[in-house]
Structure formats: structure tokens, C-alpha cells
Amino acid sequence: QVQLVQSGAEVKKPGASVKVSCKASGYTFSTYALHWVRQAPGQRLEWMGWINAGRDNPKYSQKFQGRVTITRDTSASTAYMELSSLRSEDTAVYYCARDGCRVGDCYSPTNWFDPWGQGTLVTVSS
Amino acid sequence: EIVLTQSPGTLSLSPGERATLSCRASQSVSSSYLAWYQQKPDQAPRLLIYGASSRATGIPDRFSGSGSGTDFTLTISRLEPEDFAVYYCQQYGSSITFGQGTRLEIK
Fold first, then answer.
1. CB B98 to CB A44 under 8 A?
2. Pairing between β-strand A68-73 and β-strand B46-50 as defined by DSSP bridges
3. A17 phi, psi to nearest 5 deg
4. CB A100 to CB B95 under 8 A?
5. How many angstroms separate the CA atoms of B90 and B101, rounded?
6. Cβ pair A111:B45 closer than 8 A
7. How many whole angstroms separate alpha carbon A119 and alpha carbon A92?
8. Which residue in A15, A106, A123 sits closest to A67, CA to CA?
9. B21-68 confidence digits (pLDDT tens)
């Protein structure tokens, strides 16, 4: 079955960077886009950006532009999200999620998300 | 950016009752590009509905979605104990945004 498994929890100091991984299995990695979404305590889900796993052309939400970098390693079927210049407000659970449509099957390049990874808690504290 | 507002914030119902959750968009959502998710404590969101009304694989038929333009609804026809959770709507017609969630709790 399709599965996304993320790396473990991280604790970082303000100003540092964090890199979270998302390993995919159960499907051909390059045929779907992957998204990153975060959820701060008590807050709504917040989309950060996505990457077409077959083309390596990441796109970012304006809010995170300049601070987030999404990459992928097709040989490892793994996507990565790196967030820099961390501050306390970045404390959140970070999720990867597969796009609902195989690349080219839907009119829109970004769609619903299914499935999601289990989430990675990133705590930013001095 | 399209802002999604969900109502009510909290819905208190009993098993067997019908639940109606609302998601209103600040501008029209193109092509009904709207999805619904269920999230239980310490779990990732699970897709329920996409394209405003299409049920995801494995989702029971007591879950249904409707609406278009700026007003969308998720209906759970007869609540089961496992349905008590937080529900989010998401639009993917213009960038991607989520609603703030509706908490469905046992009365």
C-alpha cells in the first residue's frame, strides 16, 4: 500500500535550520507530486509548498518563500523539506502528503492530498 | 488568497444523529476544487471527500459532500462513535488553503 514515512522529532534553537525527510513506498515515486503542510499548536493546517517528484521544480507558498527548500532524491524515493532561520512560531508538526492525482492525469497540477505522512514534530526553543 | 471559514467551531451531537458541517470561501472556488479531511488526536489528516462531492477510496457512504462556488457542506448521515474528530476543508483551486476546522464532539 502507499505509505509515506517521515523522519523523527527535532528540537532546534532559534536561528537554526531543520531538514525533514519523507520516504515514499508502494508506488512509482516520480509519478506524483509531494506537498508539505504544517500544523502549529491550535492552528489550522498551513500549506508550505510542493515538488513534482519527476521534475524537481519546487514551488513555495509566498509566506515561506526564501526560508523553505523542498528537494527530492528519486533514487531513494524520498522528499525533503528544509526550513531555515527558525523561530519559536515555527514550532509545529510538519507533514508530507502525496498529491491526489498522478502527474498529468488532472487539469490542475495541485490537488487534494492522499495519503499523508505520520508527521514530524519540530520544536524551536532556546 | 482564498480564506475558508468553517462553521460551527464545535458541534455537539450524539451517535446516530446527522451532522452538517459548513465551509464558506471568501471567493469562488474554481471547478469545485474542494476537499474534506478528518483528523483524530495525534494522527495525520485523512482524506474523506475531493472535488466537493467525490468520496475517497474506503470512505463509508454515510459521508457526503456538496456545494459549489463559495458554499460547501460535509454531511455525516448517521454518526458512528469513530466519527467524532476534527474536520477540515481545503481548497486547491487557487494556491492551497485550509479552513480552521470544526470539532465534532460527543454530546
1. yes
2. unpaired
3. -120, 160
4. no
5. 10
6. no
7. 10
8. A15
9. 999 999 999 888 999 999 999 999 999 999 999 999 999 999 999 999
CA-CA distance, A111 to B94, in Å (whole number)?
Answer: 10
Single-letter amino acid, residue B49: I
Contacts 24+ apart (CB under 8 A), B78-84: B78/B16, B78/B17, B78/B18, B79/B13, B79/B14, B79/B15, B79/B16, B79/B17, B79/B18, B79/B19, B79/B104, B80/B15, B81/B15, B81/B106, B83/B19, B83/B38
Q: Which three cell numbers stand for residue B26?
A: 471568501
Identity of residue A62? Q
Measured between CA atoms, the residue of chain A closest to residue B56 is: A114
Q: Does B92 touch chain A (CB under 8 A)?
A: yes
What does the alpha-carbon distance between residue B15 and residue B107 come to, in Å, rounded to a whole number? 9
Side chain identity at A102, as an amino acid letter? R
Q: Judge whether A45 and A113 are in contact, CB under 8 Å.
A: no
Q: Say how many CA atoms lie within 13 Å of A34 toward its Cβ.
A: 33
DSSP string for A57-110 = --EE-TTTTTTEEEEEEGGGTEEEEEE-S--GGG-EEEEEEEEEEETTTSSSSS
Task: For residue B35, give the amino acid letter.
Answer: A
Q: How confident is the model over A11-60, as pLDDT tens digits? A: 999 999 999 999 999 999 999 999 999 999 989 999 999 999 888 789 99
Cell of B53: 462531492
